[in-house]
Amino acid sequence: EEMTFGYVPASLEYPYNVQTAEGFKEAAEKAGVKVVVLDPRGSVEKQGNAIDDLLTQNVDGIGFLPLDSVVAESFVDKIDEAGKPVVAIASQVGDPNTRAVDDPYPKLSAFVATDNFKAGYVSGEMAAGLLPKDRTAKIAIVEGDPAYAVVKLDTDGFKAALDKAGANYEIVAAQPTNWTPDEGESVCQNFLTAHDDLDLIFSQADDMAIGCARAIEAAGSKVTLIATGGGSKLGYDAIKNGEMYGSVCTRPRLLGALMFQSLLEAATNPDTPKARYVTYDMPQITKETLDSCPEQW
Amino acid sequence: MEKTSPIMTLRSVAKTFGNGTVALRGVDLDIVQGKVHGLLGANGAGKSTLIKILSGAFKASGGTISWRGQPVSWDSPKAANDMGVATIHQHIPLVPTLSVLENVFLGSTGAWRLASVSRKRFDELCERVRYWPDPDALAGDLSIGERQMVSILQALGTGADLIVMDEPTASLATDERELVYATVRQLSKVENKAILFVSHFLDEVMALTDQVTVLRDGEAVLRAETSTLDETRLAEAIVGKQIVELERAAEARIGPSAASGTPRLELRGLSSPDKLMPVSLSVAKGEVIGVAGLLGSGRSELIHAIFGADKDAVGDVLLDGQTLARSTAASVRAGIGLVPEDRMGQGLVPEFEIWRNLTLPALQGVSAFNMLPQPERERERGEEAIRMLSIKASSPDILVRELSGGNAQKVTIAKWMFSDVKLFLLDEPTAGIDIGAKTDILRLIRKLAGEGKTVIIVSSEFEELLAVADRILVMRDGKCIAERNVHETSEHELLLLAGGQGPKGQAVNGSGKAAGH
Amino acid sequence: MGVYYALLLLIFVLTMITTYLGQENYLSIQNLTNVIYQSSLTSIMAVAMTVILITGNFDLSVASVAALAAAVLVGNADAMGFWPAVALAMTVAMALGLLNGSIVQFVGINAFIVTLGTMTAVRGLVLIYTDGRSLSVKDPGVIAQMKAFESGKNDVFLLVVAAGIVCLALGIGSVIKSRSSGKSLRPAAVGTVIGGVILLLLALASGGELVVRTPVVYMGIFTAVVWFVLSFTMVGRRIYAVGGNSEAARLSGINVLRYKLMAFVLCSGAAGFAGVLFASRLRSINPAGLTGAELTVIAAAILGGTSLFGGAGSVIKTLAGALLLFSLTNGFNILNLGANWQGLIEGIVVVVAAAIYTVGNQGRAKGH
Amino acid sequence: MGVYYALLLLIFVLTMITTYLGQENYLSIQNLTNVIYQSSLTSIMAVAMTVILITGNFDLSVASVAALAAAVLVGNADAMGFWPAVALAMTVAMALGLLNGSIVQFVGINAFIVTLGTMTAVRGLVLIYTDGRSLSVKDPGVIAQMKAFESGKNDVFLLVVAAGIVCLALGIGSVIKSRSSGKSLRPAAVGTVIGGVILLLLALASGGELVVRTPVVYMGIFTAVVWFVLSFTMVGRRIYAVGGNSEAARLSGINVLRYKLMAFVLCSGAAGFAGVLFASRLRSINPAGLTGAELTVIAAAILGGTSLFGGAGSVIKTLAGALLLFSLTNGFNILNLGANWQGLIEGIVVVVAAAIYTVGNQGRAKGH
Ligand SMILES: Nc1ncnc2c1ncn2[C@@H]1O[C@H](COP(=O)(O)OP(=O)(O)OP(=O)(O)O)[C@@H](O)[C@H]1O
Ligand SMILES: Nc1ncnc2c1ncn2[C@@H]1O[C@H](COP(=O)(O)OP(=O)(O)OP(=O)(O)O)[C@@H](O)[C@H]1O
Ligand SMILES: [Mg+2]
Ligand SMILES: [Mg+2]
């Protein structure tokens, strides 16, 4: 009998989301499983509605990219109640302040994710090697949208790595953006004006880093730019051209495939354990290790 | 009768509106160069519709128009303008956000907005009309009479050969009217232009026009040289029946009955900064007060101040001895009704039907449980108003936006006829109303007074004031400068007073007092 | 009437396509109740938005206000109990409406810019209040109350049958009356008959049990009340007059200020209630929750033919507008239409629906 | 004049705070040019939006159109070369403007709902075109052209000095004239004088070199042209007339349709140009790029006092409105204010700025 899986990303306007969907579809095609991908356009309500619609269509399993970690609990409950396996991808289910990343919400079949704390941590390690040793280094952070939980995780991981490396640093500025390159540009421009002695800028995504690179270039500044949540085509180009020092390899496509795998296991084998945590390794990407990150999304 | 070929001829022009109203049923019209052609008719006869058709604003549903012997088919007002037809429309369309100067030259061509020639031409125009508005004032800030004058300048500015004027004098006071007459004469006699002139004032028509066409129900019922007619014939042709002139039967009038006791209305030092000097006044039950004055003399301000519609006004207004709170809601509740001068801007909700407009100020009267208006009763009221004021509308469900000017005006009056209004404030109530209905309305006012209601009426037609009022106040520059008993004054005196040349009149009680109260 | 045609047309097209593709039937009771449920919060806000649009104002801040109400509820329910927290949330929301209205009416600033400002400011309050984190309810008692308040199911079979019969009766009565009095058929009468038939068919199709979720009931009640007030009471008449020509209304003795303020308070109150429902549904709130919902709300009202310049609008049509928008998204989901094409199609459908409305209306009143 | 006061007040407050906190001076030339640069794309769109608002219409689709133009440019530049791709992008944008305008004017649907529809539909096109991926430019030749087009620096010292002197001269002339003719001082004259003084002070502070980036120059030229057309040509007067009372304009023989359509094309064209600049700056485009920018654009125009009902508005004030909004964000960054408080403060500043504007204007014209 033919199986159908559903997937509800956050918004297919974002390449990252598109890649998860692509990876999911690709893996499903190989396995001969039909897929339904519904786009909630970044709205929690629409995500809930899409899940309702999938349940109405009686799919055999549902994956989703939680727009809101806490709200996601009720979605998982609902799907679980309907007796379908459910897998969350990329973003945690359950309050990130109280639940550890590697301890998924118990009703989930699996949680497939980039470890964002680790993503920040890898950037931090990279940064630690770049900071001046003889004085307190000044760092500025280009944050994502303050409403997203990853913003805090990225920053925490980044600081943890610097602290572990014993770096002598001060975060002199941290400003929110809406994850877009244009805001990245303005924020960096303002950083560079307010602090002409910055040593390093840490951007929480490649997108803002692209804009930031333009600002650095225009100001003729020597500040080092690194990012996390990278591996995108744009980031790849920027690192190759020397506009950005490095980023961290995240792999949405792989996530999509892993999510499919987890769903398939849960749907075909009732003995599959619940609440598995599935993740992958995240190498640094710098000019030297450009090809260590296989996806260019 | 000299034989000149008409500059414009209309043959069996007809118009049926989208809502099924037949406004014109085949009208012929010849307009001759150098002549003033009067177009008359009762409210809703189709005058404005005809004018909109010959100026290109509407498309006719049938018939032909020829211009200088050539059949034309305007598809836009621009086409008509370009050929030399300039129109002053009834509901004066100016651009409120542009200056007077720019409004006057709105349709002119050329590349520059602030060309100095236009200022020069503006001065010339003003000189021609002998009226000087502030060229830099915003049109939106003007009163309705001033707007009317600006639109006359606008039409003159185009230098057209045919100038069409749809009730240019309806909202003007005597002085400005004289200016318009002079202009019209100058245009036709000296500059040899053709003029199509619409008016409800028969004296005006008699004095000014060379020929007249009378419309009734969308058909031309009379076409004649003015010299062969008199006012009675005209009135008969317009209304379709003999009408009796409302005489200035002041003697026959029973004076205000209850002059003793508490006055119905008392004003104590009512004033409004920059607009109205302190006024004190006492009006009895059943008394009709006329307010005379020129354009911008503050008559409307006085009415608005009494009604509580002017937020800046200070001073006390007492109705039957009770001080009123200063809000329109309180005034209406206490039994005051206001007919404002700008019917579309202030009097009516254009997208409401006749019946919903009518019942707006007195919904309780047609509501069940004092809460739920009952459309059936409201429609009945609409029917009644249509009958009472002979409003030309097929049913009360017609939107007031679709009514002719005079009929819309009647609706603003009818709004106050169905509740217990003790004090009527009427600001130019007969503006744009035809001769038949005007008499009816003036009679209605007398009848109301007879029933013990009090009326304050503002009118630029002093004759009208003399016909209905018991007492007349004259205003100038925001001040009440004189008060006359109707028996003791004449139109001539009022004119002089309003124009500022009158004999030193007795001061109104308290207009000399300080603003204190 | 255009919006009804547009809605029926859309549903018809979706039904045809799903049937043709052999998919789950679009017209299933399950799916229809889903659509109505999905649209309920937006509909509640859109109904109130219609009122504010009728008075000639505008409110961009609804979504932010709803989010703040949700945050206040979630943030306080554990400590003070469900109902007191609801009361607090509603108070906050209505106070914000009063604030909006007061700034618009007393300072005289355009409502668009005022509510654009408060939209940003209130969203800022949400961020401050939640400190950028998602809040959630912990207390099991409160959770139970929230479930009872929001997630209950209600059999409205009898209600729908009754409403259908009433509509049918009223409609037929009105048709007969206009026939006998020789007047032309009023489209509203025909509409009422069709509405009645549809309701009865729905009841028939459901086979005696028509279960809807509680928010749908709230929406129904709220809409019915507002519709009644607007159509049949003096207050409603005055609301239309205030928007149609506020100067004429003022000079007719209507307290324009009061009605305009009231509309703001109603709109924010409805937003607050939607926020309360939202919070009860999800039992948590994230600082970005409901972002952008104001545009859907306004779009629903305008699709329903509400004028942006005041004086005209109908809440029933607004409801149809909201259903139209949600049927569309739901249709996309049922059809599994590629995400890329959704935006394009949605945009086109919105314009076409408005066109049906406008062209349908042009027979009645010719504009230039 | 209110928006200027509001802007000056905001800059003053920010300067005080930065000085007090001993931070980098807010008023540094570097920072001011930054703010202007950051606001340039929005300003270009807001200036065109002002025109469309003056004609009594509305355009919500600008941000989507800009994103589509950017996507078209980035997607085609490698294959067809930079300039042909720019031409293509501009053509697409202006065609969309014509489409918007045609639907609004010929079908007669409200501009709000039409452009809400096209906003969604065009964003859908962007998604379809990019297939949900970020596009980027590879060809080094094209990259070089883009840099030359967008990232150049231009010394405008002499220009600013010249503009300052002209303003000063015009302003003083006008003051003297009104003095001698005994009329009351027109605030515009005083404003021109102050503007001139500010420009000269700016030039002085820069110490002989005032480098701005190319988009600022484009913005300056575009604004100057639109300002000139609106203020001094007949076309400008007709644009105001069409918005102020389209019936009066029609009766005066103005081709209302043409001017309204033209405004839509201009607006989409400006959006297209902003998109081209955006794409040239980032040499890449992501499908969600510029989402939500339309609200900032409209807010700038309305803060500048443009009426939503048409007939009134000034592009210079719009520019001040845009600068106000961007000064604020820039101020937050310079002060490193926490993310939580920004929304609240931004909202309040917007309302206060509008209040300053409105209250300042109330002396002139009393509304009800
Ligand atoms: N836009 C419209 N839509 C429908 N009916 C209209 C419209 N304009 C006018 N009418 C109707 O056409 C008829 C003629 O109106 P018109 O305005 O020509 O009268 P009029 O002679 O100018 O009257 P008045 O002296 O009151 O100005 C009236 O019955 C009016 O109700
Ligand atoms: N909205 C306004 N803004 C500025 N000035 C006004 C406004 N309304 C009236 N005025 C001025 O106040 C003065 C009194 O006007 P008002 O309308 O009371 O005069 P009126 O005697 O009723 O004349 P009219 O026949 O024009 O109605 C006039 O000089 C007028 O220009
Ligand atoms: Mg007329
Ligand atoms: Mg007056």
Automatic annotation (TrEMBL), chain B:
TM stretches of this protein: none
Keyword Zinc included in the entry's annotation: no
Gene Ontology terms for molecular function: ATP binding; ATP hydrolysis activity
Pfam family, one: ABC_tran
Record-linked PROSITE patterns: ABC_TRANSPORTER_1, ABC_TRANSPORTER_2
PANTHER family documented for this protein: CARBOHYDRATE TRANSPORT ATP-BINDING PROTEIN MG119-RELATED, D-ALLOSE IMPORT ATP-BINDING PROTEIN ALSA-RELATED
CDD domains referenced in this protein's UniProt entry, alphabetically: ABC_Carb_Monos_I, ABC_Carb_Monos_II
Protein name according to UniProt: Sugar ABC transporter ATP-binding protein
Domain ABC transporter: 8-242, 244-502
Organism for this UniProt entry: Paragemmobacter straminiformis
Keywords tagged on the record: ATP-binding, Cell membrane, Membrane, Nucleotide-binding, Repeat, Sugar transport, Translocase, Transport
Automatic annotation (TrEMBL), chains C, D:
Descriptive protein name: ABC transporter permease
Record-level Gene Ontology MF annotations: transmembrane transporter activity
Gene Ontology cellular-component terms listed: plasma membrane
InterPro entries: ABC_transp_permease
Entry keywords, A to Z: Cell membrane, Membrane, Transmembrane, Transmembrane helix
Residue ranges of the TM segments: 6-23, 44-74, 156-176, 188-205, 217-240, 261-279, 341-360
Top-level taxon in the UniProt lineage: Bacteria
Key word Cell division present: no
PANTHER family per the UniProt record, alphabetical: ABC TRANSPORTER PERMEASE PROTEIN YPHD-RELATED-RELATED, RIBOSE IMPORT PERMEASE PROTEIN RBSC
Pfam family, one: BPD_transp_2
Originating species: Paragemmobacter straminiformis
Compartments, as annotated in UniProt: Cell membrane
Membrane topology, from the record: Multi-pass membrane protein
